[in-house]
């Protein structure tokens, strides 16, 4: 699925490559692909439609500047727009209330409310030294109260007893009273899962809200949720003055398009994501990461955008496959990789964009020099016969002289290339997967001056 | 979308002791009124959608706008791009082939194309094939596994079969207590251990069922996401250990799917099938506004029999899957 989406979007880029401007016609095809990608990511259709309309408007009005291809400009707009919609920054919990600051949880059945109460209680206790009380107003689900009790024990916060025979509202009143008398900083109220169309249950939580007057009313959403996210979000948003959203089960491989749907409908910030069943499995929300997850491009979207200007993904995949099948990496492949690098705007440009570890390696590289030697390497390979490119071991002294003369280089340079190539070939064999990054590292090893 | 049942189940929760078998029979065996109720449930959904399918199909010409509306209906039901395109292509072909002109005919065409796609999933479970008949439940977190076990226990008992539950979720807080409560509601034995591992609990439960001559063993497992490789390995082990107790068990490996989940559900079917060899599905939470259209994608790409649907949180909120009723509820 992940590959699928990346392919779709790289397909978009490709189909637009070489066109000077985004026109009404070429953008329509490309936007249809983006539309499909968003639908596959479970962004709700009405939201997709609005989104596409906005992107289209912005893309058409936008000039394609500098070295950007029209495809990049489009993907850029898509990504920007997505990030913008996800919220500019991540919002912390608001606890600025006369204690106790009350947090009310709401959401569909099985979304992760109770587990999230445990996680947040732990977080507030440990990172903000808050005195936290938790209580369950779920009198329906078997053992729901017991579940919260056990979680409270696990994270070491106090649990306020409740019982399935009580009314949720009465439970809430008693808990608030207790929290006040015992000077708790925070009171977290868990509730039963409910369907948005269940009027009695929606009324129940409205009443709870009125009783509690919580400073935070958190809507808990399963990251795997599909198209119905819009209806659910709308109904909960209308019933309750939500203050934030928590997206659970983000440790799965769902693209999480529901995040966009819910944001779009409620306009409320996504405050945290759940990334595991354990009580430590919670993280702040990062809008730009979510945007690229929905697009299926990981954190290196900006790099990929640049790379896709020139790289031929299929070619890279072909080479990777070849390596994997044990057939070996020949000089022909080497040259193809080199040409792709050139299209990407050269090594120096590319290295700057590499994240973390690779960026480190890029330090101290003399970009211009590396590019010059790339040109010479290419000239050498160009002077070889197809057989020589496939089987470099046939290149003996006389062939070396011919190649050097043909490429305007020296026999030493030819030797050096062959040596470096051999090293790289060994390196390449170690890669189980021929990802782009790995390829790049392989290339780096053989560039003089790198 | 089957929201009517919510009310019904609430009534019955009020009197959970002594569930009367007649009531169950009634709910299961009056398909016509059931379909009617389905429709009334869907009417609410329609209003929420702001879309009236009846008017969409209410006579008039077949044109591109109509196809686009159709596409909207299928996509917003979570059928996914691939299944939606497939269905629309088939419909277009038949419309051309048969020279259909009227939008009402288009609706019937779509219904029959969809029926052809999903009716192969309608394969009822045959729990009398072995004794004890071991059913192992699997699925992502919060899908409805434990609740479905509670409902299945009642369903099988109403068919005169004896049931035993195995509390194989030894991980989640109070998972065991939750299953024990379902056991009490059904008045059936629950085999559970303090701590311990899932495989051991299931092994014990099966041996206990053999000793007592129990007909059905329902084994609960902890929720897990397909990305949690160690947990996927753990559930493989549960299955292997079950096989040690009875070589041809588990006789049914059920993946429980939440109708609210979007395209990832298809992936869940693929990954759990690869790990366990699925023999059946249960689609839960159809009493909400989610349509569970992903079953169309499952039928097309990775078919596994859909045994039951869940239509509420009560003991009786389980129905054998009927493709016809599902489609009627979706379109009429
Ligand atoms: N992998 C993963 N599992 C989660 C996460 N959050 C919750 N879960 C699991 O999801 C399941 C449901 O979580 P609960 O906390 O019981 O959900 P709930 O919303 O309280 O459910 P109801 O009270 O029945 O409506 C449990 O198995 C949790 O362990 C998460 O971020 N990642
Ligand atoms: N409305 C509705 N709710 C359901 C249905 N099936 C289950 N639920 C609810 O969904 C929530 C989760 O159900 P569980 O049975 O605990 O799910 P599970 O798969 O066992 O969850 P874990 O063991 O935590 O992975 C509970 O609140 C159930 O009451 C259904 O058909 N309709
Ligand atoms: Mg809960
Ligand atoms: Mg469970």
Largest interface chains and counts? A-B, 50 and 52 residues
**Number of beta-strand segments of chain A:** 8
- Give the ordered list of helices and strands of chain B: HHHHHHHEHEHEHEHEHEHEEH
Estimate what percentage of residues of chain B fall within beta strands.
Answer: 5-15%
Structural class of chain B: alpha/beta
Radius of gyration of chain B: 21 Å
Structural class of chain A: alpha/beta
GO molecular function, one term (chain A): GTPase activity
Domain SRP54-type proteins GTP-binding (chain A): 269-282
EC number (chain A): 3.6.5.4
Subcellular location (chain A): Cytoplasm
Q: What attributes characterize this protein structure?
A:
heterodimer, A: 450 residues, alpha/beta, Four Helix Bundle (Hemerythrin (Met), subunit A), Rossmann fold, 434 Repressor (Amino-terminal Domain), 3 domains, eight-stranded mixed beta sheet, 21 helices, disordered N terminus, disordered C terminus, B: 332 residues, 14 helices, elongated, binds guanosine-5'-triphosphate, binds magnesium ion, RNA-binding (chain A), signal recognition particle (chain A), SRP (chain A), SRP54 (chain A), EC 3.6.5.4 (chain A)
């Amino acid at each position: 699925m992940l590959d699928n989406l990346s392919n779709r979007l790289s397909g978009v880029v490709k189909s637009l490559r070489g066109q000077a401007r985004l026109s009404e016609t070429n953008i329509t095809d490309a936007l249809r692909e983006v539309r499909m990608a968003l639908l596959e990511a479970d962004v709700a259709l009405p939201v997709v439609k609005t989104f596409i309309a906005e992107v289209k408007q912005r893309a058409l009005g936008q000039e394609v500047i500098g070295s950007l291809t029209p495809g990049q400009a489009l993907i850029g707009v898509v990504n920007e727009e997505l990030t913008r919609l996800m919220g500019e920054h991540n919002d912390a919990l608001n606890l600025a209330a006369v204690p106790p600051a009350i947090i009310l949880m709401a959401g569909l059945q099985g979304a992760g409310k109770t587990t999230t109460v445990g996680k947040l209680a732990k977080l507030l206790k440990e990172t903000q030294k808050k005195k936290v009380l938790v209580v369950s107003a779920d009198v329906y689900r078997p053992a729901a109260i017991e579940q919260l009790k056990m979680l409270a024990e696990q994270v070491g916060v106090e649990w306020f007893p409740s019982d399935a025979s009580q009314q949720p509202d009465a439970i809430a009143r008693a808990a608030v009273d207790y929290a006040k008398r015992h000077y708790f900083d925070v009171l977290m109220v868990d509730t039963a899962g409910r369907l948005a169309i269940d009027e009695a249950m929606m009324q129940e939580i409205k009443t709870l809200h009125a009783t509690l007057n919580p400073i935070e009313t958190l809507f808990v959403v399963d990251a795997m949720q599909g198209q119905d996210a819009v209806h659910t979000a709308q109904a909960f948003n209308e019933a309750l003055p939500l203050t934030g959203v928590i997206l659970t089960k983000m440790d799965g491989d769902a693209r999480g398009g529901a995040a966009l749907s819910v944001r779009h409908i409620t306009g409320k910030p996504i405050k945290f994501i759940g990334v595991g069943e354990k009580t430590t499995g919670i993280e702040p929300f990062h809008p730009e990461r979510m945007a690229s997850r929905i697009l299926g491009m990981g954190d290196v979207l900006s790099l990929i955008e640049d790379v896709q200007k020139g790289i031929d993904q299929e070619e890279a995949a072909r080479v990777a496959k070849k390596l994997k099948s044990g057939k070996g990496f020949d000089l022909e492949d080497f040259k193809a990789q080199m040409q792709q690098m050139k299209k990407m705007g050269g090594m120096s440009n590319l290295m700057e964009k590499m994240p973390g570890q690779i960026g480190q390696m890029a330090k101290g590289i003399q970009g211009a020099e590396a590019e010059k030697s790339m040109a010479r390497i290419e000239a050498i390979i160009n002077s070889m016969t197809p057989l020589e490119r496939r089987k470099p071991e046939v290149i003996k002294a006389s062939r070396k002289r011919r190649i050097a003369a043909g490429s305007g280089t020296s026999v030493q340079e030819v030797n050096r290339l062959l040596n470096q190539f051999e090293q790289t070939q060994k390196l390449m064999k170690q890669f189980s997967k021929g990802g782009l990054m790995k390829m790049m590292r392989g290339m780096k090893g053989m560039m003089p001056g790198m | 979308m089957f929201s009517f049942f919510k009310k019904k189940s609430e009534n019955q929760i009020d009197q959970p002791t002594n569930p009367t078998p007649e009531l169950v029979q009634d709910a299961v065996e009056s398909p016509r009124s059931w379909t009617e109720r389905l429709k009334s449930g869907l009417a609410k959904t329609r209003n929420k959608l702001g879309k009236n399918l009846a008017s969409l199909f209410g006579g008039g010409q077949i044109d591109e706008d109509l196809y686009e509306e159709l596409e909207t209906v299928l996509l917003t039901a979570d059928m996914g791009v691939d299944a939606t395109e497939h269905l629309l292509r088939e419909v277009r072909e038949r419309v051309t082939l048969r020279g259909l002109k009227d939008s009402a005919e288009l609706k019937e065409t779509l219904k029959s194309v969809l029926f052809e796609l999903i009716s192969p999933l309608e394969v009822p479970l045959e729990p009398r094939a072995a004794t004890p008949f071991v059913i192992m439940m699997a699925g992502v977190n919060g899908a409805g596994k434990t609740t479905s076990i509670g409902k299945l226990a009642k369903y099988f008992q109403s068919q005169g079969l004896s049931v035993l539950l195995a509390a194989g979720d030894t991980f989640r807080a109070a998972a065991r207590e939750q299953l024990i409560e379902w056991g009490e509601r059904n008045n059936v034995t629950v085999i559970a251990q303090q701590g311990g591992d899932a495989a051991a609990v299931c092994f014990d439960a099966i041996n206990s069922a053999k000793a007592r001559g129990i007909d059905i063993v329902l084994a609960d497992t902890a929720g897990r996401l397909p990305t949690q490789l160690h947990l996927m390995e753990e559930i493989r082990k549960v299955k292997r250990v079950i096989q040690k107790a009875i070589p041809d068990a588990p006789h049914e490996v059920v993946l429980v799917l939440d109708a609210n989940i979007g395209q990832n559900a298809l992936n869940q079917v693929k990954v759990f099938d690869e790990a366990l060899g699925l023999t059946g599905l249960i689609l839960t939470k159809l009493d909400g506004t989610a349509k569970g259209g992903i079953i169309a994608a499952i039928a097309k790409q990775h078919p596994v029999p859909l045994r039951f649907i869940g239509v509420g949180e009560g003991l009786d909120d389980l129905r054998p899957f009927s493709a016809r009723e599902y489609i009627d509820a979706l379109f009429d």
